[in-house]
Design a protein that fits this description.
The complex is a heterodimer of chains A (96) and B (530). The N and C termini of chain A lie far apart (131 Å). Chain A has two helices and no strands. The radius of gyration of chain A is 39 Å and the shape is rod-shaped. Chain A has 96 residues and is mainly α. The longest helix of chain A is centred in the middle third of the chain and has 71 residues. Chain B is 31% helix and 26% strand. Chain B contains 16 helices and 25 strands. In chain B, the strands form five sheets. In chain B, strands 12, 15, 16, 17, 18, 19, 20, 23, 24 and 25 form a ten-stranded mixed β-sheet that branches. Chain B is elongated and about 90 Å long. The mean pLDDT of chain B is 94. The chains are: A mainly alpha (96), B alpha/beta (530). At the A-B interface, helix 2 of A face loops of B.
């Protein structure tokens, strides 16, 4: 048997064996590619979720800052109202 | 008390702003000062009148009229020449000093070794309200090489300013950054006053309002940093960042020292991005696949339950560069890492958790280059959770141990752009950090009384106590699948050990600021008193 014939026979034997035992090298590579594609898709989806999560975290800080500012304005308003109340009382008592 | 000369160059300012600027100096609580005003040939005729009238009213003002417009550098040098005070303070023609600015700053110079001092600052909006306080860290030379975070209020001994050559022509727009770089190289001590003593006006044409207003300033800033690197023998190329006013110092590694990658593992498996992975195998594989730095050895300390298939896989990936070190005892991260360090031979140690994956190919080189500076013992990188949010951007010790800005978007520049610049910090996580071998052993390695937590905090603080700097870089990055592989609960015993050793340091982080809320890591300001 010539070497070419021998290789051909061996290839046929490999093909027969593969048919017996299950997925071929090609299908394994294809499956692996599918897994990697699915992993990248999952990574992308998780990154999108992360962007949202991160934005929420950052916005929580901004919200806390805004609440602090609101408290400060409220305090300033109350202080102003108290002092204006005093002025109004003095004004009313003078009119009487 | 040393006397201040306040230096102000004037060129066509808004009239009200100039008047407010003059008034803010006149009303200083400290009465003995000199205000040097250099009119750089303003085209508005009233400028000279306003300055001359002010000088007539108050003899503490020195007004110089330039015959020709020479630009900010020439005018600043004229101001410096006319100054007579022992100290100088820089004030822009439309900005405002806090009433106690000079008094507080001059108090800092009572300490005779202080040569440069700066304060916190805020902005004056067009409607006159104050906003955006910038609460700065204490002196951070690495950060100053990445951005002029000091800006205002800058003060210095006049003799030092003259010694370093004053303001340099050719650095217009970045002349203050250039001056600060040269001053801080020579200063015996650089002090920071954590108080807002300077109010920076957001004029429509100013950098405060829009950083893209003076594009030439950023190129000059880049050159100023490059020249500092050349002066200090830092082998690096400075690049402008995509963020105006920020720069990247791209350091080159001297030689190619052997880096030992120390990884403790139990051979754990877990699911990340929908796929089952062997953490340690994938951590090593990611370095082998991506890293531009190749002179590595891997020292993997493994527990008895580590599957044989994991060890075989590691051997296939790393070949003869792999050292497997068995460890049979109770879980003790510190003990395992110390053992790995003893078995390693590299001059630099990459402390690496097994649940990591390399992102940036330059990461190891970036960290090694930093630790080749004699005064930098450890450098850490940016770590991201699997969803891309920030896990680590340096430690913050503000009453407790935190990771700065944990959970923020991974690509967010952060407050004051702190996440896109290299900077000093009090500590970095040992999940991915390079430490110089000699420094690691000098401080006794990891503390084995801290088996699970805070061992990296302790190592960082020991190194800093020896006088070393610790640098964090956004240009070295890994994923860290921490939550997927470990429960980060701390024990009372570990907290006690840490506080016994470092209570003061855990409460006073020099790279944080007392005006920021403690027990948080998001740089939220304390409510300001009215």
């Amino acid at each position: 048997m010539s070497p070419e014939d021998e290789i051909l026979a061996l290839r046929e034997e490999v093909a027969a064996l593969r048919a017996l035992v299950g997925p071929s090298d090609e299908s394994y590579a294809k499956l692996q590619l599918d897994v990697l594609t699915a992993r990248d898709a999952a990574k992308g989806a998780e990154a999108e979720l992360g962007t949202l999560r991160g934005t929420i975290t950052e916005m929580s800080t901004q919200l806390a800052r805004a609440q602090q500012s609101q408290d400060a304005v409220q305090r300033a308003y109350l202080v102003g109202r108290r002092s204006m109340g005093g002025v109004a009382r003095r004004f009313r008592s003078r009119r009487r | 008390m040393p006397r201040f000369s306040v230096l102000t160059t004037v060129f066509d300012p808004p009239r009200n702003a100039l008047v407010e600027c003059l008034e803010s100096v006149r009303q200083q609580s400290l009465v003995d000062w000199q205000h040097v005003l250099v009119n750089d040939s303003s085209t508005l005729p009233w400028v000279a009148e306003v300055l001359d009238e002010a000088a007539l009213r108050d003899r503490r003002l020195t007004v110089v009229h330039r015959k020709f417009n020479g630009g900010i550098v020439a005018a600043s040098n004229d101001a410096l020449s006319a100054a007579t005070g022992e100290l100088v303070a820089l004030l822009d023609h439309d900005d405002v000093l806090h009433r106690e600015a000079l008094e507080v700053m001059s108090g800092v110079y009572d300490e005779s070794t202080v040569d440069v001092a700066y304060s916190d600052s805020d902005r004056i909006r067009p409607d006159g309200r104050h906003s955006m306080p910038f609460f700065k860290p204490d002196f951070s030379p690495e950060r100053l090489r990445s951005q002029n975070y000091i800006t205002h209020l800058t003060t210095a001994r006049r003799s030092l300013v003259i010694d370093v050559g004053g303001f340099r022509p050719g650095f217009d727009g970045a002349q203050d950054h250039d001056l600060l770089l040269r001053l801080t190289e020579r200063a015996r001590c650089v002090a920071h006053v954590p108080r807002v003593l300077y109010h920076w006006r957001e004029a429509p044409s100013s950098v405060a309002s829009d950083p893209s207003n003076k594009p030439y300033a950023y190129e000059n800033g880049r050159r100023a940093i490059q020249e500092q690197c050349d002066r200090l023998d830092i082998d690096a190329e400075v690049e402008r960042s995509r963020y105006d006013g920020c720069y990247r110092v791209r350091r080159r590694v001297v030689g190619e020292p052997l880096v030992s990658v120390l990884i403790p593992t139990r051979g754990s498996h877990g699911t990340v991005w929908g796929c089952e992975r062997s953490f340690v195998v994938d951590a090593v594989a990611s370095i082998e696949r991506l890293s531009a730095y190749r002179n590595l050895e891997y020292v993997v300390v493994y527990d008895p339950e580590t599957p044989a298939s994991t060890l075989l896989a590691l051997g296939r990936i790393a070949g003869r560069r792999l050292k497997l070190v068995p460890f049979a005892g109770e879980f003790n991260f510190s003990h395992k890492m110390n053992l790995a360090a003893v078995k390693s031979i590299g001059t630099h140690l990459l402390l690496l958790n097994d649940d990591t994956e390399l992102i940036d190919p330059d990461s190891i080189g970036v960290l090694v280059a930093h630790t080749q500076m004699p005064d930098v013992a450890m450098a850490g990188g940016r770590l991201l959770f699997a969803d891309g949010t920030l896990q680590h951007a340096g430690h913050v010790y503000a009453g407790r141990v935190d990771h700065a800005l944990v959970g923020w978007p991974g690509e967010h520049p952060g407050p004051y752009r702190m996440n896109v610049v290299e900077r000093e910090c009090s500590g970095v996580t040992a999940a991915a950090a390079v430490v110089r071998r000699d420094s690691f052993f000098d401080v006794g390695g990891f503390c084995e009384q801290l088996p699970g937590n805070f061992n990296d905090v302790d190592l960082s603080l020991k190194l800093r106590a020896q006088g070393y700097r610790i640098v964090w870089s956004p240009f070295a990055s890994w994923y860290h699948f921490e939550s997927a592989s470990r429960d980060p609960q701390t024990t009372d015993l570990e907290r006690d050990v840490l506080l016994q050793r470092w209570r003061w340091q855990i409460e006073c982080d020099p790279y944080f600021n007392p005006n920021l809320l403690p027990l948080r890591s998001d740089w939220l300001e304390r409510p300001q008193p009215h």
